[in-house]
Design goal:
It holds the Pfam family Thaumatin. It is a single chain. By secondary structure, this protein is an alpha+beta fold. It has five helices and 13 strands. The chain starts with 11 loop residues before the first helix and ends in an 18-residue tail after the last strand.
Length: 285
């Protein structure tokens, strides 16, 4: 508790300055300032088609923005989160939330959460590219995030702090479209528009496709020394070097020690959309 200031009539200005110094020193001695404000995520869509971003909290954390929403091409959505939120974001594609009564169920081609627009905390069906977030209110610890393809891929995504250049808090998108190089045994396909052949809409991980311990880094392979990836994880790593390609991928980029109050999550950050996303275009929807 700060020392009580000796208010009086003589030397008031000097006493006031002395008191102010004592108060500042007492707060400095109390330790680092803990952030109480919330965090804002700008979820942007630079794909030439609509996406339905979704989020799911870790246990004990609240659902953000209902857990899912639509973002048209070239638009973005502001999503507020508590300063200590933990959870994941992903994008859903090819969604139709109205069953047509002719055997077609409502839902999404990738990342679906039980056919609902608002996932309300439900985790999406893999394969889907995951942004994993861990926010900390204490600046001495900082927030962290990464991008994972451990369960597979559907869209490229980039994550950065706002304003740009805040430390090393950035994860780049992909150099290649994984769906374009996905081997047949990992492909998730859907009928193309206008009567075309099947289109690859997502790429499973080897763990998801085959369920083998060697691919899933479990059982006898549950250590970094025993689980060193596979030809499939190397395909993911070649296309998206900054992402986790399998559970013990030590070359993946994890943004740590981030103390920004705003972050930008951009789906299709380049090639399919604008080369540079502009946070100033973030729009409420």
């Amino acid at each position: 508790m700060a020392e009580r200031c000796p208010w009086g009539t003589s030397g008031a200005r000097r006493r006031l300055l002395s008191c102010a110094i004592m108060v500042i020193l007492s707060f400095m001695a109390a330790g680092p300032v803990v952030l109480t404000e919330g965090i804002v995520f700008h979820v942007a869509n630079r794909c030439p088609f609509p996406v339905w971003p979704a989020s799911a909290p870790n246990t004990g954390h609240p659902v953000l923005a209902g857990g899912g929403f639509l973002v048209p091409p070239g638009k973005s959505r502001r999503v507020a989160a508590p300063a200590t939120w933990n959870g994941r974001f992903w994008a859903r594609t090819g969604c139709n939330f109205t069953a047509n009564g002719m055997g077609a169920a409502a839902g999404c081609l990738t990342g679906d959460c039980e056919g609902r627009l608002a996932c309300n905390g439900s985790v999406g069906a893999p394969p889907a590219t995951l942004v994993e977030v861990s926010l900390h209110a204490d600046p001495s610890k900082g927030s962290s995030y990464d991008v994972s393809l451990v369960d597979g891929y559907n869209l490229p995504v980039a994550v950065s702090a706002k304003p740009a250049g805040t430390g090393k808090c950035a994860i780049a998108g992909c150099a290649k479209d994984v769906n374009a190089v996905c081997p047949p045994e990992l492909q998730v396909t859907a009928s193309a528009a206008a009567g075309g052949g099947p289109k690859v809409v997502a790429c499973k991980s080897a763990c998801l496709a085959f369920g083998l311990d060697a691919f899933c880094c479990r059982g006898a392979y549950a250590t970094p020394a025993a689980c060193r990836g596979s030809v499939y994880s190397r395909l993911f790593k070649d296309a998206c070097p900054a992402y986790y390609s399998y559970a013990y991928d030590t070359t993946a980029a994890t943004a740590t020690g981030c103390n920004a109050q705003e972050y930008v999550i951009t789906f299709c950050p380049s090639r399919w959309g604008d080369e540079e996303h502009d946070g100033g275009r973030d729009a409420q929807m």
